[in-house]
Amino acid sequence: MAPETRRSSKTSPEYELIYWPGIPGRGEVVRLLFEDAGVAYKDTAKASRAVETVLAHSAPESAGDAANPPTFAPPVLRHGGLVINQLPNILLYLAPRLGLGPASGNEVYHLNELALTILDGLLAEVHETHHPIATDQYYDEQKAEAKKRAKAFREARLPKFLGYLQRVLDGERSGGGGWLYGEFTYVDLVLFQCFDGTKYAFPKTVEKLKKTGKYDGVFRLYDAVRERPNIKAYLESDRRIDYADGIWRHYPELEEDE
Ligand SMILES: N[C@@H](CCC(=O)N[C@@H](CS)C(=O)NCC(=O)O)C(=O)O
């Protein structure tokens, strides 16, 4: 699974990622694929007029074009004449092109299943802990519900998702090599980013779960991704964006019981 292009071999990147500036968010998962593969990409979050670019792809007036329906929300990927959104869809498109997953066969659907589950549990449900009622209202307007939702996430949902991921790692298909699906694939990057964000949001909870020893494979995978040379270099670079008021937020009170 060799990637199509290496970073150094391109002057003008063929791929363009359109995402909000200032937060890692869903865009970060896409970035990690490019970074691990060493494939150049234009990142509009780091360019001027970043917000305008996002709005051009998500505002109610945005109409798409003759080849592409309007996109609903970022992240958006542009590749040649193709414009697509929905993170798992972008991952499906990129994985075979970047050497991070197969192009066809049953494996495509297994990998997508794993990616969707990780995105449900460690991205969407984390977001719902601080925005359980309305995404377009402030956290302060839904604090009481957030507290209840966060408690349920910490006590039931997070252990359930980590337990599932550990079962995947323990399963025969994983192959015992430490990656979710035999050889290293994009779903290992999805898990790394979503678990990193979850650790940021719920540090005490994750530390407590680590101590149980029930999810050691998940923690080992996380550490192993961190040590991949291109990922390590990226994480140490100023291209990596700090967590802020995005999907993965840290509100200490959401880790406290009454
Ligand atoms: N299911 C979509 C969700 C996209 C989404 O919620 N994007 C956020 C940023 S991470 C956004 O700006 N949403 C605007 C909206 O939903 O109105 C995906 O996976 O890409």
TrEMBL record:
Stretches assigned to the GST N-terminal domain: 14-102
Residue ranges of domain GST C-terminal in the record: 112-254
Pfam families on file: GST_C_3
PANTHER family, per the entry: GLUTATHIONE S-TRANSFERASE (PTHR11571:SF263)
Name used for this protein in its record: Glutathione S-transferase
Species per Swiss-Prot/TrEMBL record: Trichoderma ghanense
InterPro entries, sorted: Glutathione-S-Trfase_C-like, Glutathione-S-Trfase_C_sf, Glutathione_S-Trfase_N, GST_C, GST_superfamily, Thioredoxin-like_sf
